[in-house]
């Protein structure tokens, strides 16, 4: 009697995929979704609000306020002046006195800065200034443009508003940090803004935190 063909009495063994293979497949799949190994986006910087304190390395900074102030004209021939004031409480954590400085004109030029205000890499919205903003400090009731070691100092960065300029509802600050390191061609240590090199052989500051300040209005003085 002829036996039937095409069927096997031997049970099939299950195909075992090693666990490492599954892990690799998962990683490759996620990488493909993100656009490749070299295109994974950088994590967003921490988001801070009014009153927050940020350790910038060289400075400990509290983001106090953003206010619209008005200076009334001294006489009938003068004119009222409106300003947007960004107010900070800054403590120099270094060992040497440093100037308050000025915010950079553009983010890509900020990496050479060594002052507190140079760490305000980007201010949004942009407020156009013919001669740039003013920056000044008040420590122990004395006006100054310097930050002395260990002395909490109120720093104001002031922007002049035009007669027809609409004040913003809020201001967003991209803030950099500092690190104490030697120079490129010497071994002398100093505070420098933390930056990273771009594909265009330029340097951009790393954003340590992004701070959002609501804008309030003060009574004219």
UniProtKB/TrEMBL annotation:
Q: Where are the transmembrane segments?
A: 15-34
Q: What are the UniProt keywords, alphabetically?
A: Membrane, Transmembrane, Transmembrane helix
Q: In terms of domain of life, where is this protein from?
A: Bacteria
| Entry protein name | DUF4352 domain-containing protein
The organism's lineage is:
Bacteria, Bacillati, Actinomycetota, Actinomycetes, Streptosporangiales
């Amino acid at each position: 009697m002829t036996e039937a063909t095409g069927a096997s009495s031997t049970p099939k063994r299950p195909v075992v995929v090693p666990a490492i293979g599954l892990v690799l497949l998962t990683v490759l799949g996620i990488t493909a979704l993100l656009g490749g190994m070299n295109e994974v986006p950088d994590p967003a910087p921490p988001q801070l609000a009014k009153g927050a304190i940020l350790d910038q390395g060289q400075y400990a900074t509290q983001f106090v306020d953003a206010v619209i102030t008005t200076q009334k004209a001294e006489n009938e021939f003068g004119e009222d002046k409106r300003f947007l004031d960004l107010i900070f409480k800054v403590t120099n954590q270094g060992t040497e006195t440093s100037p308050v400085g000025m915010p950079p004109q553009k983010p890509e030029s900020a990496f050479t800065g060594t002052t507190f205000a140079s760490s305000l890499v980007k201010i949004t919205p942009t407020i156009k200034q013919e001669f740039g903003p003013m920056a000044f400090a008040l420590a122990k009731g004395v006006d100054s443009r310097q930050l002395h070691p260990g002395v909490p100092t109120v720093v104001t960065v002031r922007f002049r508003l035009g007669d027809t300029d609409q004040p913003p509802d809020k201001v967003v600050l991209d803030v950099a940090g500092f690190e104490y390191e030697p120079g490129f061609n010497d071994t002398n240590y100093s505070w420098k803004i933390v930056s990273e090199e771009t594909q265009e052989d330029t340097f951009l500051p790393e954003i340590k935190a992004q701070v959002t300040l609501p804008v309030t209005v003060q009574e004219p003085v």
